[in-house]
Write a structure and sequence with these properties.
Layout lengths: L1 H5 L4 H11 L9 H13 L3 E4 L5 E5 L11 E6 L21 E4 L2 E4 L6 H12 L11 E6 L7 H4 L10 E4 L7 E6 L1 E10 L8 E8 L4 E2 L11 H12 L5 E9 L4 E2 L3 E7 L3 H18 L8 E6 L9 H13 L3 E5 L7 E13 L2 E10 L2 H17 L3 E4 L14 H13 L4 E5 L5 H7 L4 E4 L4 E2 L7 E3 H20 L1
Parallel strand pairs: 3-6, 3-7, 7-21, 8-20
Antiparallel strand pairs: 1-2, 2-6, 4-5, 5-23, 9-18, 9-19, 10-14, 10-15, 11-13, 12-14, 12-17, 16-17, 17-18, 22-23
Helix pairs in contact: 2-4, 6-7, 6-8, 10-12
């Protein structure tokens, strides 16, 4: 299948994307890819540097005759969200992604694809070699560890880039140009629990096959959160039998809506009676979910454990805390139609020996509202007896509707495709806001090809859209650097 992808156009972009896909690059584990990027830059005759945090800055020489044009930076992040279904056998630390073409889209087999932001990175790298793309001097900024908190951008060295214009390539809807985004911060909650023996039968309750997705871009789609659904089911089962949780696990990444969650518990009831109840709860769950999530399942099965369950108080508190933590849209913007202003993602839960660890991720384009949401989560956690740690957040990217990049992008896109593009602010964290805070006066715009279901194993990128966006990128650069 790799050979088929290498036949796609633009060939340089797809060649680099396949090479990126062959190198493991989970967040915090991008060094092998970073070294490969530096090697590719050297082979293309481009100088490169790395700052103390490992970010890479590649300088791409101008096309002959364009040496005096204003310098423009392109920016992409090196890491990807590594998600797979529980039953999938795949090691993100060692295995290359298994790419395939399905109905005009490229996707990976049973894992995330990493088109977020690998396809944008591939476009920037392609410019190192593309003699058909006429441009002035360029800088290609490759940041690390974006998906776990935009850490590479947060630690970016100031006074490093020379460009006063930057194109971020981390957008997932062709024809939608991003000129602003939300800020955000994560919260960890550590709930101490006690264990004590409890007689009964051991069961495993599982919610799975939800769609999942990006906790910013798709938080407004009413997608099911497996952790909330699982806890709701456990709460219902408590009305018919006394039960104690042994452990509860669900979700993984802070920016992915949980698709799966599992609880091991001990109860006095028998399997037949609980199975009948779970079947009814599964039907109720599907009624809550959208049409795109009707394959979701809730199952119960007998299990075994040598670990004693949580005592009655700990089991009750853990369950109620998880049910109390908000998830979903909090507020909508009053200035921009249909824009989510604030939200929270109940991202993950895991049970260690004597502690339940919970991660939430909150976003808002309003710093005061973000602080209010973080305070609410802290208050709920502290009332339950949890230790709460709120991470240092990242700032929103305030839109500049007077930027000259907007009319230039609109003109070029319309001339190429006879369609008027949209310019908007999104409810997701992009590195533009952080980089602008380090480079005052920097003018930033973001765009990219159609990518569906990022941060989930259903992630895919549209082939024709990649060709469109790369063609637009070359034309847009020429417009910026000759105007």
């Amino acid at each position: 299948m790799i050979d088929s992808i290498l036949q796609l156009q633009p060939s340089l972009v797809w060649r680099y994307f396949t090479q990126i896909s062959e190198i493991p690059h989970d967040s915090g584990k991008e060094e092998a890819l970073a070294q490969a990027v530096c090697k590719w830059a050297a082979a293309a005759g481009c100088s490169h540097e790395r700052d103390k945090s490992g970010n890479i800055l590649i300088r791409i020489p101008a096309t002959a005759g364009m040496e005096n044009a204003p310098m423009v930076a392109l920016q992409a992040h090196l890491d990807m969200v590594c998600e797979k279904n529980t039953e999938t056998s795949f090691n993100f630390d060692t295995d290359p992604l298994k790419l395939r073409i399905v109905d005009g889209w490229v996707m990976a087999t049973d894992t995330t694809l990493g088109a977020d932001n690998g396809i944008g990175l591939a476009m920037g790298l392609a410019l190192m070699e593309d003699s058909d793309c006429v441009h002035g001097p360029l800088e290609l900024l490759c940041t690390l560890d974006e998906e776990t908190g935009l850490n590479g951008a947060l630690e970016l060295s100031p006074n490093w880039m020379k460009s006063r214009i930057m194109i971020n390539t981390d957008t997932e809807d062709e024809g939608l140009f991003i000129i602003g985004c939300a800020g955000g911060a994560d919260t960890d909650l550590y709930l101490p629990v006690n264990r004590t023996p409890f007689g009964g039968n051991v069961f495993e309750l599982t919610v799975k096959n939800l769609k999942g997705g990006h906790s910013g871009m798709e938080i407004n789609q009413n997608l099911g959160n497996a952790i909330h659904l699982l806890c709701g089911a456990l709460e219902s089962l408590q009305h018919e039998t006394e039960l104690r949780i042994v452990h509860i696990q669900g979700g993984d990444k802070h920016n992915a809506i949980p698709r799966e969650a599992t609880a091991l518990f001990v109860a006095e009831a028998s399997l037949p009676s609980l199975a009948l109840s779970v079947k009814g709860l599964e039907m109720l769950m599907r009624k809550q979910l959208t049409a795109k999530e009707q394959h979701a399942t809730m199952t119960i099965a007998p299990a075994q454990t040598t670990q004693p369950p949580l005592d009655a108080k700990s089991s009750f508190t853990a369950l109620r805390l998880l049910l109390s933590i908000p998830h979903g849209v909090e507020t909508m913007s009053t200035e921009i139609e249909n824009l989510v202003e604030s939200s929270t993602n109940l991202a993950s839960v895991r049970t260690i020996e004597n502690e339940v660890v919970i991660l939430t991720s909150s976003r808002s384009s309003n710093p005061e509202l973000l602080n209010s949401i973080l305070l609410q989560i802290s208050a709920v956690g502290e009332l339950a007896g949890a230790r709460v740690h709120t991470h240092t957040g990242y700032p929103p990217w305030e839109p500049d509707f007077d930027s000259p990049l907007i009319p230039m992008a609109e003109k070029v896109y319309q001339e190429l495709f006879e369609v008027r593009p949209e310019f908007n602010v999104i409810h997701a964290g992009l590195e533009g806001g952080i980089i602008k805070s380090k480079y005052p006066g920097l003018d930033v715009i973001s765009f990219g090809p159609n990518i569906e279901s990022p941060h989930s194993p259903s992630e895919r990128v549209e082939i024709q859209s990649v060709e469109h966006i790369y063609r637009f990128l070359c034309a847009f650069l020429h417009k910026i650097q000759t105007s």
